[in-house]
Write a structure and sequence with these properties.
It is a single chain. This protein has one domain: Metalloenzyme, LuxS/M16 peptidase-like (Cytochrome Bc1 Complex, Chain A, domain 1, 2-Layer Sandwich). Helix content is 40%, strand content 16%.
């Protein structure tokens, strides 16, 4: 028994001594990954993958607001506003907007167009590669739908009558991990 304790203690001390000398190399940034900030504070990131030309162009707009930013009178706005945005054409004509959303969902990895969480709202588009016209339309749509949204009783009724494509994350809000995260 005592021999086992001594061996465990010696092994532990040996591991601690060798762990102090082991050093990992610093991670080097990927040269294909580019990022920057526009003059208005919008941060952008681009990852080029020329070795995979069939990859789709993924556009994600992350807005740092969610249901935690709502007051009691605003409860539900973080879900309703993106839902209204999805029913509007965002500066495009209706046929262009419909076409954009039809082509903006990857059939191999479908993702909801908008995901709302406690602290973020994420708009997702996955466009076919080599379609610059769609890329311009997508950026124009996102800029107009998030910055120039028209909210009237008619647009609210139209959004409530159309299919709800806004996903809520987490799916189970009673999950313990989320409660822990909210408490900090």
């Amino acid at each position: 028994m005592q021999g086992t304790k001594i061996r465990l203690l010696a092994g532990g001390l040996l591991m601690m001594a060798t762990a102090g000398y082991v050093q990992a190399d610093a991670l080097q940034p990927d040269p294909a990954w580019q990022q920057g900030t526009l003059s208005n504070g919008l941060q952008w990131q681009v990852l080029t993958t020329p070795q995979r030309p069939s990859d789709r162009v993924e556009i994600r707009l992350l807005v740092n607001t969610g249901s935690l930013a709502e007051s009691t009178q605003q409860s539900g706005y973080s879900h309703a506003i993106p839902r209204i945005a999805l029913t509007q054409s965002g500066g495009l004509d209706a046929a262009q907007a419909r076409s954009l959303w039809q082509q903006g969902i990857d059939p191999k990895r479908p993702m909801p167009p908008v995901i709302v969480s406690y602290d973020t709202t994420l708009f997702n588009l996955s466009l076919p590669n080599n379609r610059n016209d769609l890329l311009k339309e997508a950026l124009s749509y996102l800029a107009n739908a998030t910055g120039k949204l028209t909210i009237t009783p008619e647009t609210i009724n139209h959004a409530l009558q159309s299919q709800d494509m806004v996903a809520t994350w987490p799916a189970d809000t009673k999950e313990g991990w989320w409660r822990y995260r909210l408490k900090g």
